[in-house]
Amino acid sequence: MQPSSQYDSVCDVVSVSLTELTPVVLVCGKKNVGKSTFCRYLINSMLNKCGNVMYLECDIGQTEFSSPGFVSLTQVSQPIVGPPFTHHMKSKRKCYFGGVSVNDSPDRYVACIKYILSHYKQCYSDVPLVINTMGWIQDLGLMLLIDTVRLSNPTHIVQFTLPVQTTPPPLDTKYLSSAEGWDTGVCLEAQGVGLELESDGVDSEIEGSEPEIEYQESHGVENTGLKNKAISFQSEGLTHNAQLLEINVLMEHSTNQKYKNSEIRTLALLSSLFDLQPNPLPEKPIPLTAMVPMVLPWTQVAIHIPHFQVPKSEVLYALNASLVALCVSDSSQVDEVDVKDNLKIVKSVPICESFGVGVVRAIDPVNQLFYIITPVDDQALQSVNLLVLGSVPLPKQLLEQDQDGSVPYTKYHSTFKQTGSAPLRKRKNIKRYNPRWKKKVGRK
To answer: 140: exposed, middle or buried (C-beta count within 10 Å: 0-12, 13-18, 19+)?
Structure first.
């Protein structure tokens, strides 16, 4: 691949800043404009100046180092070469959203980002950070992007723009000061309006004033189509100083046209399960049915299904032969637990750490045991007290591997027109009316 000259220009700007501060670079833009490719290019460039770079994955549908459905923080110390499924890495901290569409639960998505960012600030604040965002930048997706910018407090914002693009406009001071976020609300500082904002249940009064916009010359970006301006704004009482860098692309393109997005996710998931195979890899991979599973008693773990409503009597059927996240949660924060035959079903759980994914190989209801195949090591597995069943499916190839004839859970015997033949999806992307909104933004 021949990189754009604009890539080098942005990398030069970030590299210069390494001598003065710890850069936090947020990359945003529509899907199929080259965000992931640029992130790899930027990380490789930064590794020439520093030993490690942290990578925050906010695109849960097209992950770089982890399985689909995770918001993760990964430490990169070696150059990245190849597509995502060729360099799966163990994350320093990851949180399972439970799906590939943030529309399922925007609140959970923002909470996952807050959780991972908190860990970064506590443990790796002196290491440069690259943040990759999702390609949905309209309506709800745009509001979540605004939240991500405000929460991460980036030093640089790299925005990919198309010749004909109205949404979003450049993420400059004026726009970021007045845009509405899903979680952070509306900030009207640019108009000099005092505004109450809610964040984690705590209100703060913000006195707004017209912020100053400073422009400065870019470093080596003349005549490259790269716009570079320094911006500063305030939100939620925090001061953000960011350098906006726009990369102009002629059209949407895809570097993986050979594969669909769902196929890329499958490859990423298979890559995360690769450690199940012995080393060196045998000529014929070992199927799941021939692997020795781990045993988890029902009394040791709780079950949570975040995006669907599943009757208690059907939970075991939903878990069997499914992909689950192995998580550790503070038991004191878990509420609304339904216990049925020692099977603990949690209706709501706090955002918590996940060690990885596993496959529910079998369930023994008599002895009340889960048999799980997972690459997670034994020591981490002893801490697991929560299994989260999301909407990320187990690849069909794993179930059909080394099997003859019809394989259970791989054929549809229902037309999905019968009552109860499909799970009920919860709607969490519509906020209920809050009377305080009228006071906040002057709505009538």
So the answer is: middle
Pair 187, 207: CB distance under 8 Å: no
Question: Tokens 């009552």 — which residue?
Answer: 419
- Retrieve residue 185's tokens: 């609300």
* Strand, coil or helix: 46: helix
In this structure, what token pair is assigned to residue 355? 């060690």
Q: In what order do the strands lie in the sheet with 93-96?
A: 93-96, 70-76, 53-57, 129-132, 24-28, 156-161, 238-248, 227-235
How many Cβ atoms are within 10 Å of 339's Cβ, its own excluded?
Answer: 11
Q: Containing H/E element for 351?
A: none
Q: How do the pLDDT tens digits run along the chain, 444 residues long? A: 556 788 889 999 999 888 888 999 999 999 888 899 999 999 999 999 898 999 999 999 989 999 999 999 999 999 998 888 888 899 999 999 988 989 888 999 999 999 999 999 999 999 999 999 999 988 899 999 999 999 999 999 999 988 876 677 888 877 888 888 888 887 544 444 333 333 333 333 333 333 333 323 333 333 334 444 444 444 443 445 688 998 988 766 655 467 788 888 888 888 888 888 888 878 888 888 888 899 999 988 999 988 888 888 888 989 998 999 999 988 776 666 777 778 888 887 778 999 999 999 999 999 999 999 999 988 888 899 999 999 888 887 787 777 666 666 666 555 555 544 555 555 565 555 454 444 444 444
* Alpha helices (H) in 221-351, listed in sequence order: 261-272, 315-319
Largest Cα–Cα distance of the chain, in whole Å? 72
Burial 81-105 (b: 16+ CB within 10 A, else e): eebbbebbbebbbbbbbbbbbbbbb
Q: Two tokens at 159?
A: 């925005």
CA 266 to CA 264: how far, in whole Å?
5
Pull the structure tokens for residue 347: 């209706």
Q: Please report how many Cα atoms fall inside a 13 Å half-sphere around the Cα of residue 415, on the Cβ side.
A: 2
| Half-sphere exposure of residue 408: CA atoms within 13 angstroms, side-chain side | 7
Predicted TM-score of the model (pTM): 0.81
What the block records as the tokens of 337 is: 């637990």
Pick from 110, 159, 171: nearest CA to 135: 159
